[in-house]
Write a structure and sequence with these properties.
Layout lengths: L8 H4 L2 E7 L3 E10 L2 E11 L14 H17 L8 E5 L1 H5 L3 H11 L4 E3 L2 H13 L7 E7 L4 E7 L2 E8 L3 H8 L7 H25 L3 E5 L1 H12 L9 H14 L15 H18 L5 E2 L4 H13 L4 H12 L4 H18 L10 H11 L11 H11 L7 H12 L18 H17 L12 E5 L2 E5 L4 H4 L1 H16 L3 E4 L1
Parallel strand pairs: 1-4, 4-5, 6-9, 9-10, 12-13
Antiparallel strand pairs: 1-2, 2-3, 6-7, 7-8, 11-12
Helix pairs in contact: 2-4, 5-11, 6-10, 7-10, 8-10, 9-10, 13-14, 13-17, 14-16, 14-17, 15-16, 16-17, 17-19
Length: about 500
């Protein structure tokens, strides 16, 4: 597969940066990756409490948005000296859940000149595991727990391979807001919070316990604060056990109110959400039968950086995901390669004229071509709709939410009628570019409807504004009446959608 051009600056300038737009805090790390190891140059952490502004209906309020936008504006200044292609920004639970996330992203683009990727919960979990795997030695199975502001991720893995990943909708901000209203801390409120977390864990507890692990690691500010409180009180030398959590719970209850919390090692910024985070961790220990846990100072942002290094070296987890799906759903690989080859051939001829300047456009088109018949696994009737459903809702490691949706949309509209007005709104991809990718894939698909290897001659594709012109060698199209008929049907469909296609 031919991928898009990578800037040489990516390899020549070793500085990389990752920004984690979390539900509680925004974390920025600037570093160099040298011989596979992370050399941190700069870290910034800002408490934003984005999840505080998320209503039960999923609306992010103006106050929370403004806190986030102000912080992003500050982060942009810090990132000025990092090559733009070496910056990756990921957003987690709150923007996953906010029904008005697109408004936030639109406004963010005005003050923050880097694309923001909203990643699925399972992808967040996978990246968290990569951060731990690169910083903690050992080949035994390990359990990793990361308590965020709105979600908690659970991963069992071995060495660099995650074996089980899951994200549950519970976090230190959301649980404090729900179960400790007005800051009151009681035994009853803890019981309710722990029970709710245990109910949330019911779906994964048996499966995770059956898989087993030899080491347990905790990440995130919540677990760090809990560890510090335990150590400062002299209950432990560093490890966290269930008995320690119970002692800390009783200590918080004795304070009676969040405003009264005063525990060495717990910052004033962490105190307001400590109770909710502690309840989640108590439930995790109980539901998963965790004996002890060690805190690790690596998490999502480190995982993002290591994954960036993999991509720079052309070891893209997304490639492996596509290969895995091809095998799992028994896709006709020969036909997929034919459509893939045609789509790339067309793309490369018109990329400059159509200004495909975003590096991922060709990659995503290529992957959609390889997966466009995945829906045949369900049924041949309307298989393009089945393809889109599978690709939108299956687990696709390495893909952010919009990348996964775009691949699904390309497969959905690669055949039959399409209406541009029906397309979803993207923040990472321009609407005109999405439509153009759809049109390329449609033409590539039509050219290969006969499923015959090597019957297409060399041909040329040109564009004039939104007109696609295909020119075959003299006499070819007159001999291939079936292909001419197929292209005529496609010509009519594109015309109904407001676009022109010509061939000769």
């Amino acid at each position: 597969m031919q991928t898009s051009n990578q800037s040489s600056d990516t390899e020549s300038d070793g500085t990389v940066a990752a920004l984690d737009i979390g539900s509680n805090s925004f974390h920025l790390i600037v570093a160099r990756i040298i011989d596979g190891s992370l050399q941190t140059l700069h870290k910034v952490k800002q408490r934003v409490r984005l999840a505080d502004g998320l209503s039960e209906e999923g609306v992010l309020d103006e106050e929370a948005m403004q806190r986030g936008l102000n912080t992003l504006s500050q982060m942009a200044q810090t990132l000025q000296n990092v090559p733009p292609q070496n910056v990756r920004v990921v957003a987690t639970y709150t923007l996953r859940k906010a029904i008005n996330a697109d408004e936030f992203l639109t406004r963010a683009a005005e003050v923050f000149p880097y694309p923001i990727e909203i990643i699925p919960g399972r992808e967040e979990a996978r990246l968290i595991y990569q951060g731990i795997a690169h910083t903690v030695s050992g080949t035994d199975n390990r359990l990793v727990v990361d308590i965020g502001g709105g979600s908690t991720e659970f991963i069992i893995g071995q060495h660099f391979t995650p074996l089980k990943v899951n994200s549950r909708s519970m976090g230190c901000v959301s649980f404090t807001k729900q179960f400790f209203p007005k800051g009151k801390i009681t035994e009853r409120s803890f019981q309710r919070a722990v029970l709710a977390a245990e109910q949330e864990l019911e779906a994964i507890s048996d499966d995770f316990r059956a898989a087993g692990w030899q080491q347990c690691h905790g990440t995130s500010g919540t677990i760090k604060a809990i560890r510090e409180a335990i150590v400062q009180n002299g209950w432990s030398n560093g490890e966290i056990k269930a008995t320690h959590l119970e002692k800390l719970k009783q200590t918080l209850i004795a304070f009676d109110h969040i405003d009264n919390i005063n525990i060495p090692g717990v910052s004033e910024h962490r105190r307001p959400v400590l109770a909710g985070g502690l309840a989640v961790l108590i439930a995790a220990f109980d539901s998963l039968n965790i004996q002890q846990m060690r805190y690790e100072d690596a998490a999502l942002r480190e995982g993002v950086l290591y994954e960036m290094e993999e991509r720079f070296q052309h070891h893209d987890i997304r490639e492996r995901t596509v290969e895995s799906l091809t095998t799992r759903y028994s896709i006709d690989s020969q036909q997929a390669k034919r459509v893939h080859r045609s789509a790339n051939f067309i793309f490369e001829q018109i990329a400059q004229a159509w200004q495909f300047n975003k590096k991922d456009y060709q990659q995503l088109l290529s992957w959609a071509a390889l997966l466009h018949e995945i829906g045949l696994h369900i049924h041949s009737t309307a298989y393009h709709k089945h393809s889109a459903y599978i690709l939108q809702y299956t687990d696709m490691p390495g893909f952010n939410t919009e990348e996964q949706l775009l691949v699904a949309i390309l497969t959905r509209y690669h055949r039959k009628k399409f209406k541009p007005a029906d397309l979803p709104k993207f923040s990472l991809f321009k609407a005109k570019a999405v439509i153009r990718l759809i049109r390329i894939l449609r033409v590539a698909s039509v050219l290969n409807l006969r499923r015959i290897e090597g019957y297409l001659p060399a041909y040329q594709v040109e564009v004039e504004d939104e007109l696609i012109k295909i020119t075959f060698p003299e006499g070819f199209i007159e001999e291939q009446q079936l292909l001419a008929a197929d292209l005529t049907v496609e010509q009519d469909i594109q015309s109904e959608s407001g676009y022109q296609l010509e061939f000769s």
